[in-house]
Amino acid sequence: MPEQDAAARPRPAATVMLLRPARSGTAAGGRVASDRSDGPMEVLLMRRVRSMGFAPGAYVFPGGGVDGRDADGGLPWTGPSPEEWARTLGTDVRTARALVCAAVRETFEETGVLLAGEPERAGEPAITLDTASEEWERDRLGLIDRSRSFTEVLSGRGLVLRSEWLRAWSRWITPRAQPRRYDTWFFAAELPPGQTSRDVGGEADLTAWTDPSLVASEWEAGRMPMLPPTVVTCAELAGCRTLEGVRKARRDIVPFEPDIREVDGQIRVVAPDGVDYPLPKPGAAP
């Protein structure tokens, strides 16, 4: 069909559902006092500023498009190899390496949370990294303006990307009818002990740790506008109930492109579970 032939090519992207135990009290600096994995959990959501061309005003997970340097084979790395990630994600090795790097890089750029550690401690619990220092902030800003690569940032500090802290979750492709399209791999990751998220990215005017089981009702009431993949993913997280449930969840990473069809006289986006959502406005995309 002509409209299919003219469809924009989706850009590869990665997004991360950053998770932590629900607060039962806080330690100094706002850190979570409990590390229970069998209790309630929270997910980090960010509200995009209304001036953004993509999903203005929507609540999203940290993430973004793949950068050309994300596929750098020199990136220090522990956990599953790029070859293993390629099998999990259903891609070639170069793309898998780029997606994992983009997931970790974008999370750091937008939240200050860094899924990295020292190589000699790769098999041990996470060390505490203070990424709020002036030196780290210069590195973070250098990543945003592309004056520094992620490989340079980690290598210069003797750190390695901890790919074992990521869990592949799903893959969503923006419908063909949308002018801006993304092929987005979703990952889950737990907030490393001792780290805190910060409002640093500039693309969001609010960040909030949220009970994923409350997201659907807030979205339906119009208090938390978001795109269908975010709503569906929060519902899936709510179904897991705990961090341990997320760890044990069986996930098949297959590409899903939502259907756009007429439902009760309105054009809607139909998700994998059959639930339909309003069609995003131009400029917004899953």
TrEMBL record:
Give the keywords, sorted: Hydrolase, Magnesium, Manganese, Metal-binding
**Listed InterPro entries:** NUDIX_hydrolase-like_dom_sf, NUDIX_hydrolase_dom, NUDT19
Q: Name one GO molecular function term.
A: hydrolase activity
CDD domains of this UniProt entry? NUDIX_AcylCoAdiphos_Nudt19
Domain Nudix hydrolase stretches: 9-197
Superkingdom, taxonomy of origin: Bacteria
Cofactor(s) it depends on: Mn(2+); Mg(2+)
The protein's name = NUDIX hydrolase
Q: Which organism is it from?
A: Nocardiopsis codii
